[in-house]
Amino acid sequence: MIVTDFFSENSAFFIFVLLLSLFLFYKRENLAIQGRFPILYMLMYRTSLGLDKMKRWSQKYKRTYLALAFLCIFVGVVGIFLSLGLMIYSLDMVLKADLSSGGGLVLPLKTQSGLDGAVPIFYVPFWYWIVSLFVIVVVHEFAHGVIAERFNIKIKSSGFAFGALFLPILPAAFVEPDEKDLRKKPRWQQIAVMGAGSTSNFLFGFLFLALFLFAAEPLLHSSMEVSEVSFNGVMNESELKAFGINEGSIQSIDGKAVSEFEFVVLDSFSGQRVLLPYLYNLSEQENVTLSIEHNGLLEEVSISPFFSEEANRSLLGITNFAVGLDNKDDKTWLGNFPLYLRTLLNYLVLLSIGIGIMNLLPLWITDGGQIAFLMISKVIRNEETALRTYNLVSFLSLCLILLVVWPGIIKSLL
Known about the structure:
Elements: H1 2-9, H2 11-26, E1 31-36, E2 40-47, H3 51-60, H4 62-97, E3 105-107, E4 121-123, H5 126-150, E5 155-165, E6 167-177, H6 179-184, H7 187-223, E7 224-231, E8 233-234, E9 248-253, E10 256-257, E11 264-268, E12 271-275, E13 288-294, E14 297-303, E15 306-308, E16 313-315, E17 318-319, E18 322-327, H8 337-358, H9 367-379, H10 383-405, H11 408-413
Parallel strand pairs: 3-4
Antiparallel strand pairs: 1-2, 2-5, 5-6, 7-9, 7-18, 8-17, 9-10, 9-13, 11-12, 13-14, 15-16
Protein backbone atom coordinates (compact mmCIF):
# COMPACT_ATOMS: atom_id res chain seq x y z
CA MET A 1 0.00 0.00 0.00
CA ILE A 2 2.82 2.39 0.89
CA VAL A 3 4.56 1.77 -2.45
CA THR A 4 1.27 2.21 -4.35
CA ASP A 5 0.63 5.53 -2.58
CA PHE A 6 4.18 6.67 -3.34
CA PHE A 7 3.75 6.07 -7.08
CA SER A 8 0.29 7.64 -7.20
CA GLU A 9 1.49 10.75 -5.35
CA ASN A 10 4.34 11.19 -7.84
CA SER A 11 2.70 9.99 -11.05
CA ALA A 12 3.69 13.11 -13.05
CA PHE A 13 7.37 12.55 -12.31
CA PHE A 14 7.30 8.84 -13.23
CA ILE A 15 5.42 9.56 -16.46
CA PHE A 16 8.10 12.15 -17.27
CA VAL A 17 10.89 9.62 -16.61
CA LEU A 18 9.15 7.04 -18.80
CA LEU A 19 8.60 9.42 -21.73
CA LEU A 20 12.15 10.74 -21.42
CA SER A 21 13.53 7.19 -21.44
CA LEU A 22 11.57 6.34 -24.59
CA PHE A 23 12.76 9.52 -26.32
CA LEU A 24 16.40 8.90 -25.43
CA PHE A 25 16.15 5.29 -26.56
CA TYR A 26 14.81 6.52 -29.91
CA LYS A 27 17.71 9.00 -30.14
CA ARG A 28 20.31 6.59 -28.73
CA GLU A 29 22.64 6.98 -31.72
CA ASN A 30 23.16 10.64 -30.74
CA LEU A 31 23.94 9.88 -27.10
CA ALA A 32 27.24 9.56 -25.29
CA ILE A 33 27.48 7.83 -21.91
CA GLN A 34 29.74 8.95 -19.09
CA GLY A 35 30.01 7.13 -15.78
CA ARG A 36 29.14 3.61 -14.68
CA PHE A 37 26.28 2.39 -16.83
CA PRO A 38 23.66 1.24 -15.85
CA ILE A 39 23.91 2.16 -12.15
CA LEU A 40 25.09 5.78 -11.97
CA TYR A 41 25.86 7.53 -15.24
CA MET A 42 25.25 10.63 -17.36
CA LEU A 43 23.67 10.68 -20.82
CA MET A 44 25.00 13.43 -23.11
CA TYR A 45 22.87 14.55 -26.06
CA ARG A 46 25.16 16.77 -28.15
CA THR A 47 23.82 19.61 -30.31
CA SER A 48 25.01 22.97 -31.62
CA LEU A 49 22.26 24.98 -29.91
CA GLY A 50 23.33 28.47 -28.87
CA LEU A 51 26.93 28.23 -30.10
CA ASP A 52 26.56 31.05 -32.64
CA LYS A 53 24.91 33.28 -30.06
CA MET A 54 27.63 32.60 -27.48
CA LYS A 55 30.32 33.61 -29.94
CA ARG A 56 28.43 36.66 -31.18
CA TRP A 57 27.72 37.96 -27.69
CA SER A 58 31.31 37.40 -26.52
CA GLN A 59 32.67 39.47 -29.40
CA LYS A 60 30.01 42.18 -29.30
CA TYR A 61 30.35 42.96 -25.58
CA LYS A 62 34.07 42.29 -25.04
CA ARG A 63 34.63 44.79 -22.24
CA THR A 64 31.53 43.73 -20.36
CA TYR A 65 32.44 40.07 -20.45
CA LEU A 66 36.06 40.79 -19.53
CA ALA A 67 34.80 42.58 -16.40
CA LEU A 68 32.45 39.67 -15.70
CA ALA A 69 35.38 37.27 -16.16
CA PHE A 70 37.24 38.93 -13.25
CA LEU A 71 34.07 38.67 -11.18
CA CYS A 72 33.92 34.96 -12.09
CA ILE A 73 37.48 34.49 -10.84
CA PHE A 74 36.65 36.16 -7.53
CA VAL A 75 33.43 34.16 -7.08
CA GLY A 76 35.11 30.92 -8.14
CA VAL A 77 38.08 31.18 -5.78
CA VAL A 78 36.39 32.76 -2.75
CA GLY A 79 33.28 30.66 -3.30
CA ILE A 80 35.18 27.40 -2.69
CA PHE A 81 36.08 28.46 0.85
CA LEU A 82 32.67 30.00 1.54
CA SER A 83 30.82 26.91 0.29
CA LEU A 84 32.94 24.67 2.52
CA GLY A 85 32.34 27.00 5.46
CA LEU A 86 28.61 26.94 4.79
CA MET A 87 28.58 23.14 4.73
CA ILE A 88 30.47 22.98 8.04
CA TYR A 89 28.02 25.47 9.55
CA SER A 90 25.09 23.42 8.20
CA LEU A 91 26.50 20.24 9.74
CA ASP A 92 26.91 21.97 13.10
CA MET A 93 23.34 23.31 12.92
CA VAL A 94 21.91 19.90 11.94
CA LEU A 95 23.68 18.15 14.81
CA LYS A 96 22.75 20.77 17.42
CA ALA A 97 19.09 20.76 16.31
CA ASP A 98 19.07 16.95 16.12
CA LEU A 99 17.64 17.06 12.59
CA SER A 100 17.32 13.93 10.48
CA SER A 101 18.81 15.65 7.42
CA GLY A 102 20.33 18.94 6.35
CA GLY A 103 19.45 18.68 2.67
CA GLY A 104 18.78 16.27 -0.14
CA LEU A 105 18.26 15.71 -3.82
CA VAL A 106 16.16 18.36 -5.59
CA LEU A 107 13.34 16.24 -7.01
CA PRO A 108 9.55 16.48 -7.45
CA LEU A 109 9.03 13.47 -5.20
CA LYS A 110 6.72 13.48 -2.20
CA THR A 111 7.80 10.99 0.45
CA GLN A 112 5.08 11.48 3.05
CA SER A 113 3.59 8.07 2.26
CA GLY A 114 6.03 6.30 4.59
CA LEU A 115 9.11 6.00 2.38
CA ASP A 116 10.68 9.19 3.69
CA GLY A 117 14.08 9.04 5.34
CA ALA A 118 15.76 6.53 3.03
CA VAL A 119 16.77 9.17 0.47
CA PRO A 120 16.52 12.78 1.73
CA ILE A 121 14.71 14.90 -0.86
CA PHE A 122 14.16 18.64 -1.22
CA TYR A 123 10.67 18.50 -2.69
CA VAL A 124 9.74 20.87 -5.53
CA PRO A 125 6.36 20.48 -7.28
CA PHE A 126 6.80 18.91 -10.71
CA TRP A 127 6.15 21.84 -13.08
CA TYR A 128 8.09 24.30 -10.94
CA TRP A 129 10.94 21.75 -10.90
CA ILE A 130 10.98 21.42 -14.70
CA VAL A 131 10.82 25.16 -15.43
CA SER A 132 13.29 26.14 -12.69
CA LEU A 133 15.91 23.56 -13.69
CA PHE A 134 15.59 24.48 -17.37
CA VAL A 135 16.17 28.18 -16.67
CA ILE A 136 19.01 27.57 -14.21
CA VAL A 137 21.01 25.08 -16.27
CA VAL A 138 20.64 27.08 -19.50
CA VAL A 139 21.88 30.24 -17.76
CA HIS A 140 24.71 28.29 -16.09
CA GLU A 141 26.02 26.62 -19.22
CA PHE A 142 25.50 29.64 -21.47
CA ALA A 143 27.69 31.64 -19.09
CA HIS A 144 30.46 29.03 -19.40
CA GLY A 145 30.23 29.25 -23.18
CA VAL A 146 30.25 33.04 -23.45
CA ILE A 147 33.27 33.50 -21.15
CA ALA A 148 35.12 30.70 -22.98
CA GLU A 149 34.44 32.35 -26.34
CA ARG A 150 35.56 35.70 -24.88
CA PHE A 151 39.04 34.18 -24.52
CA ASN A 152 38.83 32.48 -27.94
CA ILE A 153 38.39 29.01 -26.49
CA LYS A 154 36.53 26.94 -29.04
CA ILE A 155 33.23 25.37 -27.94
CA LYS A 156 32.89 21.96 -29.60
CA SER A 157 29.24 21.36 -28.74
CA SER A 158 26.38 22.15 -26.44
CA GLY A 159 23.46 20.01 -25.47
CA PHE A 160 21.35 18.35 -22.85
CA ALA A 161 22.50 15.95 -20.17
CA PHE A 162 20.52 13.58 -18.00
CA GLY A 163 21.71 12.21 -14.69
CA ALA A 164 20.63 8.59 -14.49
CA LEU A 165 20.20 5.90 -11.87
CA PHE A 166 19.19 3.02 -14.15
CA LEU A 167 16.71 5.45 -15.80
CA PRO A 168 17.28 9.18 -16.57
CA ILE A 169 16.10 11.25 -13.61
CA LEU A 170 17.78 14.65 -13.44
CA PRO A 171 17.83 16.88 -16.57
CA ALA A 172 20.76 19.24 -17.07
CA ALA A 173 22.63 21.00 -19.87
CA PHE A 174 26.27 21.36 -20.89
CA VAL A 175 28.73 23.14 -23.13
CA GLU A 176 31.83 21.28 -24.23
CA PRO A 177 34.96 23.43 -24.68
CA ASP A 178 37.95 22.12 -26.56
CA GLU A 179 40.04 20.74 -23.67
CA LYS A 180 43.38 21.18 -25.46
CA ASP A 181 42.49 24.76 -26.32
CA LEU A 182 41.36 25.42 -22.73
CA ARG A 183 44.55 24.02 -21.14
CA LYS A 184 46.73 26.25 -23.33
CA LYS A 185 45.16 29.38 -21.85
CA PRO A 186 46.55 31.19 -18.78
CA ARG A 187 45.41 29.78 -15.47
CA TRP A 188 43.29 32.88 -14.64
CA GLN A 189 41.31 32.50 -17.86
CA GLN A 190 40.61 28.84 -17.11
CA ILE A 191 39.37 29.78 -13.63
CA ALA A 192 37.17 32.50 -15.14
CA VAL A 193 35.54 29.96 -17.46
CA MET A 194 34.98 27.48 -14.62
CA GLY A 195 33.59 30.13 -12.27
CA ALA A 196 31.20 31.58 -14.84
CA GLY A 197 28.41 29.05 -14.19
CA SER A 198 28.00 29.68 -10.47
CA THR A 199 28.52 33.42 -10.91
CA SER A 200 25.62 33.54 -13.37
CA ASN A 201 23.48 31.50 -10.96
CA PHE A 202 24.15 34.02 -8.17
CA LEU A 203 23.50 37.04 -10.40
CA PHE A 204 20.24 35.62 -11.71
CA GLY A 205 19.32 34.42 -8.22
CA PHE A 206 19.48 38.03 -6.97
CA LEU A 207 17.56 39.17 -10.06
CA PHE A 208 14.82 36.64 -9.30
CA LEU A 209 14.85 37.80 -5.67
CA ALA A 210 14.28 41.40 -6.78
CA LEU A 211 11.40 40.30 -9.02
CA PHE A 212 10.00 38.25 -6.12
CA LEU A 213 10.10 41.17 -3.66
CA PHE A 214 9.18 44.08 -5.91
CA ALA A 215 6.91 42.46 -8.51
CA ALA A 216 5.42 39.13 -7.46
CA GLU A 217 4.64 39.96 -3.81
CA PRO A 218 2.96 43.33 -4.54
CA LEU A 219 0.98 41.76 -7.42
CA LEU A 220 -0.21 38.92 -5.20
CA HIS A 221 -1.41 41.21 -2.39
CA SER A 222 -3.02 43.71 -4.72
CA SER A 223 -4.93 41.10 -6.71
CA MET A 224 -5.86 38.35 -4.20
CA GLU A 225 -7.54 38.21 -0.82
CA VAL A 226 -8.44 35.63 1.82
CA SER A 227 -11.52 33.69 0.75
CA GLU A 228 -11.84 31.33 3.70
CA VAL A 229 -10.19 30.23 6.92
CA SER A 230 -11.11 26.67 7.86
CA PHE A 231 -9.88 24.34 10.60
CA ASN A 232 -10.49 20.74 11.63
CA GLY A 233 -8.80 20.49 15.01
CA VAL A 234 -9.06 22.11 18.44
CA MET A 235 -6.68 21.78 21.41
CA ASN A 236 -8.02 20.67 24.76
CA GLU A 237 -7.00 24.03 26.27
CA SER A 238 -9.15 25.99 23.79
CA GLU A 239 -12.40 27.54 25.03
CA LEU A 240 -13.99 26.39 21.76
CA LYS A 241 -14.33 22.98 23.42
CA ALA A 242 -16.99 24.47 25.72
CA PHE A 243 -19.02 25.49 22.66
CA GLY A 244 -18.77 22.02 21.12
CA ILE A 245 -16.90 23.33 18.10
CA ASN A 246 -14.13 21.06 16.78
CA GLU A 247 -14.07 22.16 13.15
CA GLY A 248 -15.55 24.81 10.91
CA SER A 249 -14.99 27.82 8.70
CA ILE A 250 -14.19 31.23 10.22
CA GLN A 251 -16.21 33.97 8.52
CA SER A 252 -15.08 36.97 10.57
CA ILE A 253 -12.73 37.90 13.43
CA ASP A 254 -13.75 40.65 15.84
CA GLY A 255 -16.46 41.72 13.42
CA LYS A 256 -14.04 42.02 10.50
CA ALA A 257 -14.49 39.74 7.46
CA VAL A 258 -11.53 37.41 6.90
CA SER A 259 -11.09 38.87 3.39
CA GLU A 260 -10.05 42.19 5.01
CA PHE A 261 -7.08 40.71 6.88
CA GLU A 262 -3.52 40.83 5.61
CA PHE A 263 -2.05 37.45 4.75
CA VAL A 264 1.43 36.02 4.26
CA VAL A 265 2.49 33.06 2.15
CA LEU A 266 5.17 30.75 3.53
CA ASP A 267 6.97 28.24 1.35
CA SER A 268 8.26 25.03 2.91
CA PHE A 269 9.54 21.62 1.83
CA SER A 270 5.96 20.33 1.63
CA GLY A 271 4.48 23.26 -0.29
CA GLN A 272 2.81 26.55 0.54
CA ARG A 273 1.03 27.77 3.65
CA VAL A 274 -1.08 30.90 3.75
CA LEU A 275 -1.21 32.47 7.22
CA LEU A 276 -3.06 35.32 8.92
CA PRO A 277 -0.43 37.17 11.02
CA TYR A 278 -3.24 38.57 13.19
CA LEU A 279 -3.90 35.13 14.66
CA TYR A 280 -0.22 34.73 15.53
CA ASN A 281 0.03 37.99 17.50
CA LEU A 282 -2.55 37.61 20.26
CA SER A 283 -0.41 38.39 23.32
CA GLU A 284 -2.24 41.64 24.06
CA GLN A 285 -5.71 40.22 23.34
CA GLU A 286 -8.12 39.62 26.25
CA ASN A 287 -10.66 37.90 24.00
CA VAL A 288 -11.38 37.28 20.35
CA THR A 289 -14.83 37.15 18.78
CA LEU A 290 -15.16 34.58 16.00
CA SER A 291 -18.04 34.03 13.60
CA ILE A 292 -17.79 30.33 12.74
CA GLU A 293 -19.82 28.27 10.30
CA HIS A 294 -20.06 24.64 11.42
CA ASN A 295 -22.59 21.87 10.93
CA GLY A 296 -24.56 24.17 8.62
CA LEU A 297 -24.97 26.84 11.31
CA LEU A 298 -23.33 30.22 11.80
CA GLU A 299 -22.36 30.83 15.43
CA GLU A 300 -20.62 33.77 17.04
CA VAL A 301 -18.38 32.97 20.01
CA SER A 302 -16.05 35.02 22.19
CA ILE A 303 -13.00 33.17 23.53
CA SER A 304 -9.84 34.09 25.39
CA PRO A 305 -6.39 33.06 24.11
CA PHE A 306 -4.21 30.95 26.40
CA PHE A 307 -0.44 31.10 26.69
CA SER A 308 1.47 28.11 25.35
CA GLU A 309 4.93 27.62 26.80
CA GLU A 310 5.84 25.32 23.93
CA ALA A 311 4.95 27.92 21.28
CA ASN A 312 6.00 30.80 23.56
CA ARG A 313 2.94 32.84 22.58
CA SER A 314 -0.80 33.04 23.10
CA LEU A 315 -3.03 30.72 21.09
CA LEU A 316 -6.70 30.27 20.35
CA GLY A 317 -6.13 26.53 20.30
CA ILE A 318 -7.33 26.06 16.71
CA THR A 319 -5.22 23.62 14.67
CA ASN A 320 -4.97 22.36 11.09
CA PHE A 321 -5.64 25.76 9.55
CA ALA A 322 -6.34 26.04 5.83
CA VAL A 323 -6.36 29.61 4.50
CA GLY A 324 -7.67 29.94 0.96
CA LEU A 325 -7.08 32.79 -1.48
CA ASP A 326 -9.28 34.16 -4.24
CA ASN A 327 -9.12 37.05 -6.70
CA LYS A 328 -10.43 40.44 -5.76
CA ASP A 329 -13.51 41.47 -7.73
CA ASP A 330 -11.59 43.63 -10.24
CA LYS A 331 -8.76 41.11 -10.70
CA THR A 332 -10.64 37.92 -11.57
CA TRP A 333 -9.03 37.84 -15.02
CA LEU A 334 -5.65 37.13 -13.38
CA GLY A 335 -6.80 33.83 -11.89
CA ASN A 336 -4.03 32.08 -9.92
CA PHE A 337 -1.25 33.64 -11.99
CA PRO A 338 0.01 35.90 -9.12
CA LEU A 339 0.37 32.86 -6.85
CA TYR A 340 2.01 30.76 -9.58
CA LEU A 341 4.46 33.58 -10.40
CA ARG A 342 5.39 34.09 -6.76
CA THR A 343 5.93 30.38 -6.24
CA LEU A 344 8.06 30.01 -9.37
CA LEU A 345 10.26 32.95 -8.40
CA ASN A 346 10.61 31.54 -4.90
CA TYR A 347 12.00 28.27 -6.27
CA LEU A 348 14.17 30.08 -8.83
CA VAL A 349 15.80 32.08 -6.02
CA LEU A 350 16.37 29.05 -3.77
CA LEU A 351 17.62 26.73 -6.51
CA SER A 352 19.76 29.30 -8.36
CA ILE A 353 21.70 30.22 -5.24
CA GLY A 354 21.68 26.68 -3.84
CA ILE A 355 22.96 25.08 -7.05
CA GLY A 356 25.54 27.87 -7.43
CA ILE A 357 26.90 27.11 -3.94
CA MET A 358 26.93 23.32 -4.39
CA ASN A 359 28.69 23.68 -7.73
CA LEU A 360 31.57 25.51 -6.02
CA LEU A 361 32.29 22.69 -3.58
CA PRO A 362 35.71 21.17 -4.44
CA LEU A 363 34.53 17.82 -5.83
CA TRP A 364 35.73 15.82 -8.82
CA ILE A 365 32.57 16.55 -10.84
CA THR A 366 32.00 20.25 -10.04
CA ASP A 367 33.36 23.51 -11.39
CA GLY A 368 34.67 24.19 -7.89
CA GLY A 369 36.65 20.98 -8.14
CA GLN A 370 38.27 22.09 -11.40
CA ILE A 371 39.12 25.47 -9.89
CA ALA A 372 40.55 23.77 -6.80
CA PHE A 373 42.81 21.61 -8.97
CA LEU A 374 44.07 24.67 -10.85
CA MET A 375 44.85 26.39 -7.54
CA ILE A 376 46.51 23.32 -6.00
CA SER A 377 48.65 22.66 -9.07
CA LYS A 378 49.79 26.29 -8.97
CA VAL A 379 51.04 25.89 -5.39
CA ILE A 380 52.26 22.27 -5.65
CA ARG A 381 54.44 21.91 -8.71
CA ASN A 382 54.82 18.14 -8.52
CA GLU A 383 51.98 16.80 -10.65
CA GLU A 384 51.54 13.53 -8.74
CA THR A 385 51.50 15.26 -5.33
CA ALA A 386 49.08 17.90 -6.62
CA LEU A 387 46.72 15.20 -7.89
CA ARG A 388 46.83 13.33 -4.57
CA THR A 389 46.10 16.55 -2.68
CA TYR A 390 43.21 17.31 -5.00
CA ASN A 391 41.76 13.81 -4.56
CA LEU A 392 42.04 14.15 -0.78
CA VAL A 393 40.24 17.53 -0.81
CA SER A 394 37.50 16.11 -3.02
CA PHE A 395 37.10 13.05 -0.81
CA LEU A 396 36.82 15.15 2.35
CA SER A 397 34.26 17.42 0.65
CA LEU A 398 32.21 14.39 -0.35
CA CYS A 399 32.31 13.11 3.24
CA LEU A 400 31.13 16.51 4.46
CA ILE A 401 28.16 16.44 2.08
CA LEU A 402 27.21 12.92 3.16
CA LEU A 403 27.37 13.91 6.83
CA VAL A 404 25.10 16.92 6.23
CA VAL A 405 22.60 14.81 4.28
CA TRP A 406 22.83 11.78 6.60
CA PRO A 407 23.86 13.11 10.05
CA GLY A 408 22.80 9.77 11.49
CA ILE A 409 26.20 8.46 10.35
CA ILE A 410 27.85 10.53 13.08
CA LYS A 411 25.21 9.64 15.66
CA SER A 412 25.71 5.93 15.00
CA LEU A 413 29.45 6.29 15.62
CA LEU A 414 29.09 8.21 18.88
